[in-house]
Amino acid sequence: MRRSAAAFVIVALMVLIPARGAEPASEVAVKVSGGIVQPSDWTITRLKSEFAEQIKPVDYMSHGQHHTANSIPLLALLKKCGVPTEIKMDHASDPRTKNLPLRLAIIVRASDGYAATISLAELLPDFGNKEAWLAMDMDGKPLSEKDGPLRLIIPSDGKPGRWVHGITAIVVLDAATAGEPKP
Predict the structure, then answer these.
(1) What is the pLDDT of residue 106?
(2) Domain 26-174: which CATH number of 3.90.420.10, 3.40.1190.10, 3.40.50.11540, 1.20.1600.10
């Protein structure tokens, strides 16, 4: 009886205490920063939670093959981080604040050092109305370590040069002040 009780305790401990290294890996986060109201880090879990109703399957071609990715609009994430999207068309407005969204550049950076830029105006419905998506998977499977945690897809681009995989950061810059020396 003692042997069976000891065996039970050992088996229970093996089940309840995972082996070293078996802990779930922490999720990789994408940092959204720059000239925005709410800089923040975004994991796949957080994106799926906060944008559940905006996740859409996006069909695209890559290397001659058709794929589908569950994605959220880049513009939705930028809005959530406080990026201004309202245009002030008043000709009497201060030129330093007039039409701020038209001056904003979005830089998407990858883990391998690659980066691409898209203007906020390209994404706005009243201007470029271009769809840019943050893909969270490919064909129902998580993105590979190289491609994840997110991948930028811009289906209407003629060539996929701005399709960034392995996104680590999204930075918002104001073209009117970018590169100016700080006082």
Answers:
(1) 98
(2) 3.90.420.10
